[in-house]
Design a protein that fits this description.
By secondary structure, the protein is α/β, with parallel strands linked by helices. 66% of the residues lie in helices and 6% in strands. The chain folds into 2 domains: 105 residues, Response regulator (Rossmann fold); 291 residues, ABC transporter involved in vitamin B12 uptake, BtuC (Orthogonal Bundle), CATH 1.10.3470.
Length: 435
């Protein structure tokens, strides 16, 4: 049981949080789309002379066309199908009223049912008669488990989760990297500057934008390598070095952007951050999952992955056994810098701009994801998929508190307690292991 909880305890916590927020957000959900349209058509039967009214979104249009097709198949008559807003609906009703065309039934989508034009039909449009109004039935379903909300959770956590891969490697070696938030900002500024100044602000090619992104990542990777060199060559604690680099990177971001946001990038620049090429799955989320699979295989099946654990578990023993500890540490900080740079590119793509204010406080969320995921701040212990679960736990807590209308100040208190609890649990595990 102890082994099971050690490996899957955080997964159980994630599932428990999902259940709790699902119960807390269970409510009537509006139905739309062709399935809702077919259900409403079956409820109405032949419907006689029918007016179908819906909004202009794809789901609303699918609802309206499904009602129209099924009612016609049942032998009813669809007098008109209105897609648009309340003004379009009033125009159609005025037309029927002027021509003195009575209606037997009006089918309204969930959006159209909220329009005031249908509140007093008998007074406003007396020639219509007394048509029966049908709207889709609401269904009980948790807002937390709606598809768009779950995708939103994954998309919002993508940058933090990707940067947490590098942070996991650093923490496994017994170090810490406080500079990742500022590197995100620096990367976002650099990639948008490169696209604007060299790739073309309006007509940048895919290759030009890719090279700009790789350039921004390379600069952040070099900064990470410099951090690792200073830590190993001069023996300065990583906390101090990365704190200094955090300030340097933030200052560089502000200098390059001149304190402004850079938004002169083409529309296609959002492909990485907002695109959905894999069955509706955001490209950033697909990239995040691919990176976690690669990182897991790297840590489990490569010599460098084992060296990271060895250095974090016992640095003196690693030195005695012949490992080049300084090389291992430089590698970890370089990867952390590269992935922070990638996080900045993704964030710039998501927001279609670069700003020196991006990434603020992200270093804390990234470290929290790693620690909540089971990595030890003392080094030598941690798993990539554990970090992914830790990132998802933080995202689920934030999302669930937003859905339940918990104010932002209280959210900070809760997240702080979660981080403190994870660190205390790590210390208890370390104490138990020592005994």
């Amino acid at each position: 049981m102890r082994s099971f909880l050690q490996h899957y305890g955080m997964l159980l916590v994630l599932l428990a949080l999902g259940v709790c927020f699902s119960i807390a957000t269970l409510q009537d959900q509006p139905t739309a789309g062709d399935a809702a349209g077919r259900a409403l058509a079956a409820q109405m039967g032949r419907a006689g002379k029918l007016l179908v009214v819906a909004g202009s979104t794809p789901e609303e249009a699918a609802f309206a066309h499904a009602v129209e097709a099924d009612v016609k198949q049942a032998g009813g008559t669809v007098e008109a199908l209105v897609l648009g807003d309340a003004r379009d609906a009033r125009k159609a009703l005025d037309g029927f009223n002027v021509r003195k065309v009575p209606l037997n039934t009006i089918a309204l989508s969930q959006a159209a049912s909220q329009w005031l034009v249908f509140n007093d039909l008998h007074t406003d449009f007396p020639a219509l008669g007394a048509p029966a109004i049908f709207t889709p039935r609401a269904e009980k379903w948790p807002s937390f488990l709606k598809r768009e909300n779950l995708i939103n959770i994954a998309n919002q956590i993508a940058v933090i989760a990707i940067v947490a891969i590098g942070m996991t490697m650093v923490i496994i070696t017994g170090g810490i990297d406080l500079s990742v938030g500022s590197l995100i900002a620096l990367s976002a500024v650099m990639v948008t500057l490169l696209v604007r100044n060299y790739a073309g602000a309006e007509h940048a090619s895919a290759l030009g934008m890719m090279l700009a992104g790789l350039g921004a990542m390379a600069v952040c990777g070099l900064i990470g390598a410099g951090t690792g060199f200073v830590v190993t060559r001069f023996g300065i604690p990583p906390f101090i070095v990365t704190l200094a680099i955090m300030l340097v990177a933030s200052g560089l971001a502000y200098l390059l952007a001149q304190g402004q946001s850079i938004y002169q990038v083409p529309e296609s620049f959002i492909w990485l951050g907002r695109g959905t090429d894999l069955g509706g799955l955001p490209n950033a989320v697909a990239l995040m999952l691919a990176l976690y699979v690669a990182a897991h295989l790297f840590m489990k099946h490569t010599a460098m992955g084992r060296y990271l654990y060895a250095v974090g578990g016992n640095r003196e023993a690693a030195l005695v056994s012949g490992l080049r500890v300084s090389l291992v540490l430089v590698f970890a900080y370089t990867v952390s810098g590269l992935l922070a740079g990638l996080g900045g590119v993704i964030m710039a793509s998501q927001l279609k701009s670069g700003s020196p204010t991006y990434g603020q406080m992200y270093e804390l969320f990234v470290i929290a994801a790693v620690v909540v995921g089971g990595a030890s701040l003392s080094g030598g212990r941690g798993r990539m998929f554990g970090t992914l679960i830790g990132a998802l736990i933080i995202a689920v807590i934030q999302n669930g508190m937003n859905l339940t209308n918990i104010e932002s100040y209280t959210q900070k208190v809760v997240l702080g307690l979660v981080i403190l609890g994870a660190v205390m649990l790590d210390q208890l595990k370390a104490g138990t292991a020592a005994k």
